[in-house]
Design brief:
five-stranded parallel beta sheet; 2 domains; Rossmann fold; 5 strands; globular; 283 residues
Length: 283
Amino acid sequence: MNLQGGILLLQEVMNDLPASEKKVAQFILNNPTHFVELSITELAEESGTSAAGVVRLCKRLRMSGFRELKLRITMDVSQSIESQEALKIAPGASLDQIARSLVHNNEVVLRDILKTLDFGAAREAVSSIAAARKVDVYGTDTSSFVAHDLSLKLLKIGVDSSCNQDALVQIASACGLGDRDVAIAISYSGEDRAVLSAAREAQKAHAKTVSITRFSHNPLADVCEINLFAPSSEPLLEEGGIVSHTALVLIGEILFAGVASLESRDYLAPLRHTREALERFNL
């Protein structure tokens, strides 16, 4: 279990919370050091809510309970984690300012992945992919590039993986899966209609379902068994989704590297074979 990043997770879900849970979250963010000294009853009283509201917040954060929330915030406080806000690119910015902002924002989101990614879930996803008869990878729009890249990398190490950018083909492929297969659904918002439909069909087919999505209460995370969460990068969502794309790509790379590094199978042989075949065609 990754016990860091409680403050970050609260910040990311803040806008999606109902009023009672938002009061608890805001109290914790305003008083993190004081919060770690409180019981659940004391937190409810001081935040003007109820113990039930605190429990609901923990569930929404996909935590096991109040104890895990306190552990995460305690780790943040003890390590004196400073919030690092993404820099917006203002109209008229110089190329130098744009480059520095993009590099800074990518550095922030890459570090934050270590706080939002559940490594237990990631290990389960890697094991499922390695044991799968077939792996489907779904994504549309910009997520389709992430999906295609991950699928191609898996193919190169001998995993039977497929990715098609056509939404109808994705859904049709999902319908043909079985309980020995894995479906990886990629959508930063978690609300892409085509990816959601494919994930739901894969679930109905009893395939293992894995999401790569933004940490939030979203439909895709609700559908999938295993969720690999990317941190929020709201400022650049307004400017092309550059950082969110980087986060999705890195999580895909973590999955690929995890599968390739397993000792249970020899993935180097098919990788060498693929490279040699591509070199013969001068690709």
